[in-house]
Fold these 4 entries.
Entry 1:
Amino acid sequence: MRFSRFIGGSLAALAIGVCPLRAGELALKVGQKAPPEEISQEVAKALGKRCIQLLDRDQPVFEFWFRAPVPLKKKPATAGKGLEAVAMATLIGVVRIHKLLTDYRDDELYEGVFTMRYGSIPSDGDHLDASEYPYFAVLIPAKKDRTLAGIKTYKAMTKASLKETDSEHPMILSLRPVRKPAVKIPALLVPAPNHKSVLLKTTGQVAGTKQTTDILLQVVYEGEGEF
């Protein structure tokens, strides 16, 4: 995932010598901030109170608000395996993107406010060995995703995202499980060569119960791979 911009009227990914994301360029800031006005009240009420910002020279690049609690199919074995307990197409948060970027597939990632719905690579034979980890967040424009349960399937959420892109794929952010939590959470990590992620903790709630548990989410904001 790299910074991108319009050059000569066309979209071009920034290469070396222009301004790619590099180690240490983004800073982490956590505070209280109201969710974007672009999202519905139903979605806003489901979000936690914290805003997690990734800043470039004090200017926000990403702003995240995560759902609390996130509905779970079951209690995960550990907080770091929380993704395994989330059902397909569950709304897990909201993100505001302040700059034109490219996503994990090196496709366009536009400025704006998006819901984040959980997905995993389909076992249809077309995506074998496509990624080290099968988890991702599909980004859907807030204007198209107004209710928590309005999108329930992989097909529906990818279709809603595809309508806003010029590529053959939905907009995504890669998600990774957490094997060894950082001492301090939230934190910025380097989970693999040429990758950067933000690690955070939120609450999950097992469906049909009042049982809650901490879950860890690791969102990749820099790096490229296949999905």
Entry 2:
Amino acid sequence: MLSAEEQLHIIASGAAQIVPESGLLEKLKRGKPLNIKLGVDPTSPDLHLGHAVPLRKMRQFQDLGHNVTLIIGNGTALIGDPSGKNTTRPQLSQEQVQANAETYVAQAMKILDPEKTKIVYNADWILSLNLKDLLGFMSKFTVARILERDDFTKRYQSQTPIAMHEFLYPIM
């Protein structure tokens, strides 16, 4: 394994900023593989160009000997990420989400090393929640906290409807 400083140099290349860089260097100096995770919601059939940067960075971590996990948001995709949206996303069926998830994995493996990539599906834990569990999670958040999100604030201030299920997205 390369030195922590050499690894940081590779990881920092092409990155605008690492926050905090000293924290990453400290973790690299421990000499143990880091656990790097990326979550993607399969809300369409194809990954987009914006996914390429984190996937390539994850591949660099893999090549440096670190552990990589791709989290397929097949549970959160049923809600639909409200980020940056000024309207409610149309809800997808589980079948649509599953079909999209399969294409996401196939596309991501063109960049990531399939032999070194752990793939998990958040529906495995999200869809098994019962009402008691869900209420427990929801009790940790306030409407004010959720409305701090820029997307919700803009929609609320412009009196654009926000469906209740959209509030579950940041909680999940």
Entry 3:
Amino acid sequence: MKLWTGRFKKELDPRTNDFNRSLPFDSRMYRQDIEGSLAHAAMLGRQGIISDGDCEKITDGLLSILHDIESGALTFDGEYEDIHTFVEANLTERIGDAGKRLHTARSRNDQVALDLRLYLRDECETLVDMLKSLCEVIADKALLYKDAVMPGYTHLQRAQPIVFGHALLAYGEMLIRDIGRIKDCRKRMNICPLGSCALAGTTYPLNREAVAAALFMDGISNNSLDGVSDRDFAIELCSALSLIMVHLSRFSEEIILWSSSEFKFIELDDAFSTGSSIMPQKKNPDIAELVRGKSGRVFGDNMTLLTVMKGLPLAYNKDMQEDKEAVFDAVDTVEKCLAAFTPMLDSITVYKENMRKAASGGFINATDCADYLVSRGLPFRDAYKATGELVARCIELNVDLETLPISEYKKICPLFEDGVYGAISLETCVNNRSVAGGPAPSEVEKCAAKLKQSLFCL
């Protein structure tokens, strides 16, 4: 069935039909299409545009279609062009001419714009819930390992001591911002375009606000041209999803490094690892690697949407059919990544001793050594230079700052006393970094609690 027959004298070439069809991928919006049609029909009835009897038939017919789809009694078979054609054809088959009146004062242009907004609005809720679950795991792990000293890195070189909980909470902060972006995106997409029709509205006395209210939307689109041609909300969602994947990819890279034999800070659970077909000793972080790899897929979906939309004149163009596969793929990919990543992180084994051992090398307490001299009256730049000379001396003697004899300290600067060893112990270095947002265990505890509390407010 085609909704646009009448103008054409020839049958559509099967190749054109196959190329033009969107039902294989837009059928996932069946619920939203029916919800939008129910609200539209109810409004048409209240406005006297269709009779109460037709409105009741349409409502009953749509609900029966919804029931049959979800029970499996009705499948998406046949050569229907799209989900709108599928629903309307089945409706007309069930209730007769009343079904043909459903499309009064509506175009597929504003109908698909509504369906996509409703579908992505629902997916936003799912994404927020999944991100919250990951944040919960991060907060719990951070509290558990608030005193697990490890090296912090810049340039992938050991830099300063932190704790494992602090490293985890950094990703919690990223994900909280991601939640905020998804929720902001949802606000802007929750606008009803129905009533824009093909591009120029309609002469029928619609109550667009009533339809928006019935669908729990925050308002109506203010311009009929924009109403049918706006896909900002899909691009914005894809952009937010791309940032989520940036964060998951960075986190995955850390997990891959931490679980390697060279680091051995953590070990992944067997349930979230794979082996090699030829090397029996291997335990591979495939989940993390796949998440890292799938980031490029979501970035590509985002670029697809930007490219599709960048040169389109107003209003609707068939190019815009390409929006759905890209945004659906981005949503599906992120949800699959979160579904695998969260339990993977939750089940890791943490080797605190290995973290502490790594932190004791690399002179990551050098800044604290310089601060010790500053506390004794030496200007920081001079303290920095003296500490640099100490590090060079340690390298010559193949020792670290904790085991360098005090006599060597005094050769560099007479202000050094035995108290320097307490000042540069890794535990002291971490505990003293209790500035707000710092890695001190006391601050990690506060920040983990704050993260968990913020999840209740989102």
Entry 4:
Amino acid sequence: MKGILLVDKAPGMTSHDVVDHIRKAAGTRRVGHTGTLDPAATGLLIICVGEATRLSEHLTGLGKVYEGHMRLGVVTESYDMDGAIVEERPTPELSSDAIRDVFARYTGEIDQIPPMVSAVKVGGERLYKRARKGETVDRPARRVTVSEFALLDYELPLIHFRVRCTSGTYVRSLCHDAGQDFGCGAALNSLRRTAVGRHSVEDATPVADFKTLEDVETRLLPLGEALDLPSVVVRAGARGLLSRGGSLTGRDIKGECPVDQGWIQLKSSDGDLLALAQIQTGPGHALIVPRRVFMKAS
């Protein structure tokens, strides 16, 4: 059994709670998630089962889409409404243009400081552990890309928004920073992840619906449908070499290779994922070097 599951996480569960639930339903320990959602958040969580766990790093790095609400007039320790309120201020009258103007300041490549209540490590220790001790430490800014920070609706003190961003972006921090620009503070009030890469929450199944092995097996997406990476079809005569980890050339694939660097999926003519490989350029030619082979040696 191998593949990925598109799971709609319920509020109040940790991402590890979802993994444990799927492990019990599937009867296997080889299950992992590909991007944490805070307990209060809902939405799409991609779960890897069996050999699909070897795809985790590629799924974790996919772009994310969120919809949520921020609450103006409050500042909290965690930058969301689960944290202790440290300051309250009056909410000013704001127009839609004024809100969009602030949101635009956080669109594009930005340097973002993660919240103290986060899993980021500083000095070898998770920030949330230091926050529990009452400590506040300097956190290095991280470069992230926010391709969209859109106003969907508002009824103050709540603002409904959508964010499209790279992996590692803290939407809580976006709310906190925007709140400072509004002059009244803000905290994340609710959050729902609606997409990861090309996978949508509309195609996901509520976690409670996974009760049995059959529930898992019938909803598994094959490895060949998991990733957004470019792909090529491997000729039948080259599959023996590939199964033993041997490098391929352009003669071993059908058609032209769509990229000249980076990662690529090697598939059968039926769309099954045979291996993940990297393109390695050499004198006069390029090699397709397998890094993770999913077919049995022959």
